[in-house]
Amino acid sequence: MLTVSKIAKNILNSFGWFVDEEVLCVPRKSLEGQIKLSERKMVRPSWKAVSKLVNGRGRYVARSVAESSDDLLQVVPVCVIRNGDRFLTNVRHEPGESLHDALGNWAGGHVRKEDLDEVASKWESVLAGLRRELHEELSLEDLPHLEPIGIVHSTENERAARHIGIVFQIVFSGSANIAAFDNKTIRERPNRRVRTRWMEKKELSSTLKTQRDWSRAISNFLVEA
Question: Does the global pTM surpass 0.70?
Answer without folding.
Answer: yes
